[in-house]
Each structure stands twice: as structure tokens, then as C-alpha cells.
Amino acid sequence: MQVKRSKSGLPTLTECGGGATSTGSAQIIAGTDGRPVKPQFIPRGYSNGDHATFVIEPGMHVVEASHDRHGERATVHRIARINGDEAVLETVAEYENGDGNVPPSLQDAVDAAIAKAHHYHCRDVHFAA
Fold it and tell me: How distant, in Å, are the alpha carbons of 3, 66, 79, 96 from that of 118?
């Protein structure tokens, strides 16, 4: 996954996404323990755009969620390492229409990602300390 750099050179990813008329997708960043982390920057919210920028490090989690007429799904990734401007991710868990192997410590992050994917024209941060 491509990462951006802060002004001080730290690797960053964003919480982004939201819902449209009948589909939606979202990305949530969670800490190493699955809890919300404090964002470095919260820009003015654009519909379904970037809503918070987080400094990342290995061990943190990225939750990608989407929904459409076939249901909702989420994938939880752990950041294994950061090579330059690339974050190497390992899949930890998958969730689809209520079934999955999501660890209890990451369930809140998955729920927030799915809620953000359903939030019509989302302009808000859904999972931050």
C-alpha cells in the first residue's frame, strides 16, 4: 500500500471513504492493540475523501470495508513493515455479511469501517482518539 510522508518525513495513511447511493467503501487506521489512535491532522472534510491523517508504524492495523447490494465486507491488515513509500500489509482477518474471523480487539475498528462505508457522503472521522 502506498504511503505518503508528513512534512517531517514520517509515513502516513489516511482514514477515508464513505457511502454513495447504493455502494460505499472506507479505510480506517487502528493502533497495534486495535484501539483508535490520535490523528496527526484533520483536514476540512470533503465528501468521501480523506478525513484524518495518521502517522503509521509496523504493527498498526488498516481496515478496508465496502458494501453494495450483495452485502458488506471488511478486511483487516496489519502493517508488517514500511519500505520507503510502501507499507507491506499482512491480512489478519476477513469479514463478510456477519461471518468472519475478526479478533475481539479489532471488532470496534471493523464496525467503524462498515459504518463509515454506509455513511452517505461522509465528511467525518469515524475512528480516532
Answer: 25, 8, 25, 15
The string of pLDDT tens digits covering residues 73-95 is 999 999 999 999 999 999 999 99
Dihedrals phi, psi of 18, to nearest 5 degrees: 155, -175
Number of domains in the chain: 1
Supply the pLDDT for residue 79. 98
Distances (CA, A) of 78 to 57, 70, 99: 10, 26, 20
| pLDDT per residue as tens digits for the range 49-66 | 899 999 999 999 999 999
d(CA 77, CA 98): 18
What residues make up the domain containing 40? Answer: 1-57+106-121
Task: Say if 12 falls within a structural domain.
Answer: yes
Question: In this structure, which amino acid lies at residue 1?
Answer: M
Question: Cα–Cα distance between 126 and 102 in angstroms, integer?
Answer: 19
Distance of CA 49 to the CA centre of its chain: 12
34 domain residue, yes or no: yes
Residue 19 · residue 109 · CB < 8 Å: no
> Looking at the domain assignment, is residue 9 inside a domain?
yes
